[in-house]
């Protein structure tokens, strides 16, 4: 195997993004494993790998990666939302709701607000 360089890690990261878009999460995970091994501090790569784990239905690894991202970036609304989806899929609705509410509080996007169940207050889905 050729020596890995910072440039090849960037190429692997970009290729993993494309694989995820093409619905090949396992291929993305394989590429991201080497990127994260070389750059464990790379939060963007960890977030992408967490998304890939989620799409591959590997919920525990997805949860762990999202938690690492949130330890580094506690105000990352998307990571809270995605962790909420992961916990929801793992049949842990109370924990999921907490992260949905944090996501909605950090970034009041309609999908975050709906997941946080804040829309029931007006009865018509509007805030």
Kindly list the characteristics that best describe this protein:
disordered C terminus; 127 residues; mainly alpha
Architecture blueprint of SSEs:
Layout: H1 6-21, H2 25-38, H3 43-55, H4 59-72, H5 77-89, H6 93-106, H7 110-115
Keywords: Repeat, TPR repeat
Organism: Streptomyces piniterrae
TPR repeats: 77-110
Describe this structure in words.
Mean pLDDT is 92; it is low at 121-127. The chain folds into 2 domains: 1-58, no CATH class; 74-127, no CATH class. It has helices at 6-21, 25-38, 43-55, 59-72, 77-89, 93-106, 110-115. Helix 3 (43-55) packs antiparallel against helix 4 (59-72). The radius of gyration is 16 Å and the shape is elongated. It has 7 helices and no strands. By secondary structure, it is an all-alpha fold. Helices cover 71% and strands 0% of the residues.
Query: What distance lies between the first and last C-alpha atoms, to the nearest angstrom?
Result: 55 Å
The average pLDDT value, as a whole number, equals 92
Give the helix/strand class.
mainly alpha
Overall strand count: 0
What's this model, at a glance?
This is Tetratricopeptide repeat protein. The protein has 127 residues and is mostly helical. Helix content is 71%, strand content 0%.
């Amino acid at each position: 195997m050729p020596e890995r360089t910072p440039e090849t890690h960037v190429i692997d990261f970009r290729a993993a993004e494309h694989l995820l878009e093409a619905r090949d999460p396992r291929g993305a995970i394989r590429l991201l494993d080497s990127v994260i091994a070389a750059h464990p501090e790379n939060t963007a790569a960890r977030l992408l790998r967490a998304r890939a784990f989620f799409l591959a239905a590997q919920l525990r690894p997805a949860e762990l990666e999202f938690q690492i991202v949130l330890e580094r970036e506690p105000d990352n609304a998307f990571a809270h939302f995605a962790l909420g989806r992961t916990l929801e899929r793992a049949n842990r609705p109370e924990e999921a709701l907490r992260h949905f509410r944090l996501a909605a509080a950090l970034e009041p996007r309609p999908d975050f607000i709906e997941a946080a169940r804040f829309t029931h207050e007006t009865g018509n889905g509007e805030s």
